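The passage that follows is intended for readers who have already worked through the single-chain material. We present the inputs for a multi-component assembly, then the predicted structure in tokenized form, and finally a short commentary. You are encouraged to pause after the input and sketch how you expect the pieces to fit together before reading on.
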Amino acid sequence: MQRVIKTMIENFKRKTHCFIQLMEYCRKTLDRPASRSIKRLLGYVLGFLLFYAPFALFHRAAACLLNIESNLTIHSFCLRVPTAHLLDGKIFQLNLPVISLFLLSLSAFFLGPIFCGKLCPAGALTEYLSMLVPEKYKISWADHIPVLHVRYGFFLGFILSSFLGGHLACAYCNFYTFDLLINYIPFGQITAFSSSMLLTLILWILILGVFTKGGRGYCSFFCPVGTLQNIIYILGSRILPIHGRLSIIRTRCNGCGLCLLKCPMNAMSVNDNGIAEQNMHLCILCMNCADKCPSKAIRYTIGKNEGQPDVQKF
Ligand code: SF4
Ligand code: SF4
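Having made your guess, compare it with the prediction:
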């Protein structure tokens, strides 16, 4: 009997050891830069399936769970209109866009702006398209324009415009333009394409997209949803004892600057001490920088908030 139990324990130990080794192998494989690039791309595909017609899985699930009516266009999930109503009180109406914005804000508070970096297909589209254009044809706007001044200035104007009866949210919406590009224009429906949408298309795809370093100029300057998430991300990092954020292991960083080159939001810099610093006003937690860092000095951590976060002044 004793021998049987001993054999069973040995077998169990062997199997557990094999299982742990398998898990470690999977973790290492998934942690490889190539796998992470594929995972990132899959995240945007998932974002597309969740939020855009004809799939719109998020809308379907929310409508079913909350027993509310929801059509399957991007308007029923719209994050921009409730953002525009942050100051005039209409944000407290209970509907799917407001609920969606609340969930998004909650995730940004605890985990950071992961929606932008991991799910938003509209932001990803220009980033990926810009990879097709040689670097010498792209402009780095941050070298010529104070990005954060424009970002926060536009955001303020955006939420004040709701008092003036303006419709900035719809007129300059890249989410909707993306919807037009995939669900309307290919099927010959171009009647909704106004002059402001045309301007958005040119700005978003061309000037601030494919011909901008990193391809996310529109995200940096004109996305109110992204700006709101970064504000909430910074707030969470300041007040929560445990928080999800990008961490730079200072003892590992050699100041090579490779992370700067790969950041689509221009959110990395090397400080006077030769150590990389993340700008939390702009970072979207895409983790491109971590993939390129030769010293493995950058990682996403959920844990105790140690020290002051890297919120750069502007
Ligand atoms: S700092 Fe890193 S994680 Fe943040 S936007 Fe830039 S590349 Fe992405
Ligand atoms: S790529 Fe890594 S080692 Fe190089 S500056 Fe960035 S964090 Fe430091």
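Commentary: Residues 35-43+78-231 form one domain. The first strand starts at residue 242 and ends at 248. How closely did your sketch match?
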